[in-house]
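Hi everyone,

Forwarding the result from last night's run.
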Amino acid sequence: MTQPPSGPVMLPWLKPLLEAMQSAQPQVQLRGMRQGYNLAFGLTATLGLLLGLLGWWLGPVQFSGELGLWLLLLAAVLAGLVIWLTGRTLRSQLNQSRTPHEQRTALLGAGLGLATAPAIPWLLGCAVVSHLPLALSFAASAGVFYGLGWWLLGRWQAAASDKILEVLQSGSSPEAGEQND
């Protein structure tokens, strides 16, 4: 088993991701998935907010209220599509994977990819930050999709654990005899 990097370059918030890549424990894997989810959304959300404030300062976006509602509906549809595609991709990767490491990688990838779902309404809300009620509607939509994603990660990890245990018990992978935390 390889040792994770250490020293001043190793950032503490990356540790759960590395542990999840090496662990067979479902709780550790879920913590790593959610850490990746938080990081991916947090970085996107921070940049979106900064760009939204800069846009507001330079000159607010002008549009009708009806267009704002259509954008809110579009954001919800796109976020739902991201959730469906992420789940479909994860299912496909889990079915094609032959080692527990490949399965853990698929789970972490799903956590990172799923962060796009709440990011869509959040970024659109940042673009219309000068229209406060609409921006708050986008933020609320992002919160709903964020919570849904958080819940789905737990469901996906639990379903994938059965597949990972099946591969470990079959002894068909090089990692089958490997000791994990």
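The helical segments are 15-22, 26-58, 65-96, 100-114, 116-127, 132-170.

Cheers,
N.
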